[in-house]
Amino acid sequence: MAFLNARDEQAVRERFAEMGGPVKLVVFSQSLGGAADLCRENEQLVREVVALSDQLSVETLNLAIDRERAEAYGVDQVPAIVVEGARDYGIRFYGVPSGYEFGNLIDSIIVASTGEPDLSDDTKASLSALAEDVDIKVFSTPT
Amino acid sequence: MRLAQHMAVASDRVRATAIEATEFPDLSRAYRVMAVPKIVINDRVQFEGALPESEFLAAVLQAVESA
């Protein structure tokens, strides 16, 4: 079963017109264990999204096998998606972003493609002066 | 998640992770997620619900300052 219907696809295509460069979605999955079904769902959702723009590509990795890559990305859970633009900006999704987070996945692809965050100048100045790493976790539910 | 991911693009210091709470019950328990969205910054500062940009930034700065 597809995640996206024709209307969803059209809406996402229109958003992707705002893309300013290539974006790679790095998907981490596991073929065994309790998360295997969710990983398959996640892979399918990403495939459907990637099909909607020529500027999108996907690389699927196995958390148990591609350990060095997982460590380099700081990924230790599956299913996971890394949204990588001109460089890795540190955007991660844990779990299938099919509900509320779907819009954020699309938005993250666009901002990663342009490298131009939609933030005030004051916010950007404060963030560029950070002297310490900042890890922001945002918990949400599908609905 | 929207503000967090824009902040991640704005600064190499910032990482933003969206977590589907129902798919990660152990993480949700560990971070005592009772309502969503719940935001946890550097495991030190946390809040529930959407905040305007200036207040979200204040929470980020508070998390760094309280280190």
Q: What's the gist of this structure?
A:
The complex is a heterodimer of chains A (143) and B (67). Chain A has 143 residues and is an alpha+beta fold. In chain A, 39% of the residues lie in helices and 23% in strands.
Model description:
The complex is a heterodimer of chains A (143) and B (67). With 143 residues, chain A is of the alpha+beta class. Chain A has a single domain, classed as Glutaredoxin, CATH 3.40.30. Helix content of chain A is 39%, strand content 23%. Chain A has helices spanning 6-16, 36-50, 67-73, 100-114, 121-128, and strands at 23-29, 56-62, 80-84, 88-94, 134-140. A 4-stranded mixed beta sheet of chain A has the order 2-1-3-4, with helices on both faces. Chain A is globular, with a radius of gyration of 15 Å. Chain B has 67 residues and is of the alpha+beta class. Chain B has one domain (2-65): Glutaredoxin (3-Layer(aba) Sandwich). In chain B, strands 2-3 form a two-stranded antiparallel ribbon. Chain B is globular, with a radius of gyration of 12 Å. The mean pLDDT of chain B is 95. Classes of the chains: A alpha+beta (143), B alpha+beta (67). Chains A and B meet through strand 4, helix 4, helix 5 and strand 5 of A and helix 1, strand 1, strand 2 and helix 3 of B. Strand 4 of chain A pairs parallel with strand 1 (14-20) of chain B, so a sheet runs across the interface.
